[in-house]
Amino acid sequence: NAGVMQNPRHLVRRRGQEARLRCSPMKGHSHVYWYRQLPEEGLKFMVYLQKENIIDESGMPKERFSAEFPKEGPSILRIQQVVRGDSAAYFCASSPARLAGVDTQYFGPGTRLTVL
Amino acid sequence: RKEVEQDPGPFNVPEGATVAFNCTYSNSASQSFFWYRQDCRKEPKLLMSVYSSGNEDGRFTAQLNRASQYISLLIRDSKLSDSATYLCVVNGAGTALIFGKGTTLSVSS
Questions:
Q1: In a 10 Å sphere around its CB, with 0-12 CB exposed, 13-18 middle and 19+ buried, how is residue A74 labelled?
Q2: What is the mean pLDDT of residues A68-86?
Q3: Which residue in the set A89, A101, A109 is minimally distant from B94, CB to CB?
């Protein structure tokens, strides 16, 4: 049973470009969470999604960031017009449908975004 | 006051030592509590959930004091492989996990 998968593992973008980060949850999990870890900082919640629905986006920056979890395919975190301050590790986690938020969240290996 | 606070360390201990980490949280409505472990530049991995009655998993013991909003992790007989950053994690009133910044442990031979 494959764990949470994220790709790419490393992504380099120049300022002003777009970054697309993908996350496939564990089999049987329908809840996806995105977290960001800045250098020397703890993980910060960004957004919580179920299939075709954004449930909680209270941690998302108001501009340039968006997330989706379509009916088919992986969840996508999209960052438009990246800036150097977006350089970070972006982790995706998933949990089963039973008790979202209370159930254990399992993390993917992360995407390390570097903005030049 | 930060939502989840931990002593950042580092804790430098010899093999075989017993070491304890503490954590406090600010939201009294928090429902679930965890310790995660994060190795350098890798994803957090669940070490153990923390229950009000306290729980033990091998060399690891976790305690929760809801009245004081305090969580602890005790590691006995430290191994070199225990070297990592230990993250205190609280599930808030919503669905997000709230992470502390972590406590770094270095076990040496």
A1: middle
A2: 96
A3: A101
